[in-house]
Design goal:
Length: 130
């Protein structure tokens, strides 16, 4: 197994240390934090969008097409009963003059994102303390 170290630098801040990077999170001021960094849930949503993005970008670049104007908007809805993520929608804005024949293929490429595929087949979780 790979190990990621989680540290607590103060207040409601929680950081992940991974491959020389410190990934900082905080809670909003209304939740007792300082609002100095994204929340863990914000990073989760960002990981979905950026993961889909690297697959879409790779597809377009591998065909030698321009990427100017490429972007992905991630929208989500919470399930009112569970207060958990109920729906995620991603909208890919394609570059100007993007060939229509590749539209479905770039969507399929974005769907290959490891974060999304992990959600489709969630791992077992084990939490221990010592």
């Amino acid at each position: 197994m790979s190990d990621m170290e989680i540290t607590f630098p103060g207040g409601k801040k929680v950081s992940a240390n991974w491959h020389g990077f410190e990934i900082a999170t905080d809670q909003p001021a209304g939740g007792g934090g300082e609002g100095s960094a994204p929340t863990p849930f914000d990073l989760f949503l960002a990981s979905l969008g950026t993961c889909a993005g690297i697959f879409a970008l790779g597809f377009i670049q591998s065909r030698g097409l321009g990427t100017e104007g490429l972007k992905i908007n991630v929208s989500f809805e919470l399930n009112q009963a569970t207060h958990l993520l109920g729906r995620v929608a991603m909208r890919i804005t394609l570059p100007k003059d993007f060939p229509a024949k590749y539209r479905d293929a770039v969507i399929k490429a974005a769907e290959q994102c490891l974060v999304k595929r992990t959600m489709d087949a969630p791992p077992a979780f084990e939490i221990t303390a010592g």
